[in-house]
Design a protein that fits this description.
Distance between the termini: 88 Å
Oligomer: single chain
Order of helices and strands: HHHEEHE
Strand content: 5-15%
Radius of gyration: 25 Å
Number of helices: 4
Largest sheet: 3 strands, antiparallel
Shape: elongated
Length: about 200
Amino acid sequence: MKKQSGVTLVEVLVSMVIMALGLVSLAALQNYTLRYQLGSVHRAQLSGLLSDYAERVRSNLGQAPGEVANSPYLVALSWDQQAAAVTAPASTTCAGGNACAPVALATADVAQWRDRVRRELPRGSVHVTGDAVRGLSVTFMWSDKEFVEQAGGDAREAPVCEELADSTGLAAQSCCPDAADAPEGVRCARFSLIP
């Protein structure tokens, strides 16, 4: 019997299959990493937007919700109303030494803040309810491609807060207000704050 030397074709094919499986696994890992990074970016943006809103309300407490009947700092528009209306900055300029009435300042603050939300989140919208004494509920809503199931192309619907009245934790933090009437494929993040 002769001693075999070298590599047979079967051994080469087996090693190529093993290498291909490893490369596919690395590609899947890369995909999950990118998804996680995108989620991190959105969480950082939400934190900055919430902080910006809180500072705007704190700087004009006389117009805070609960202090006046119809505070400009409350936003109760539905998803469609916010998508249809382009939030241009308010016509009143309250910067550079120009004195503004508190109502004009509040209106300008909300217009600028909503414009920032729209720019930083994909089709971003907000819903703000409550009052400054008991707490404000700020809900950010944005269109999320990852929230659409790849299998059938059907979009998932975020849970409605009113249906989760007794829930706590992640379910209560990721629900959309019923009044916002958010369509399928919209992700929500709900925060509470006392200015």
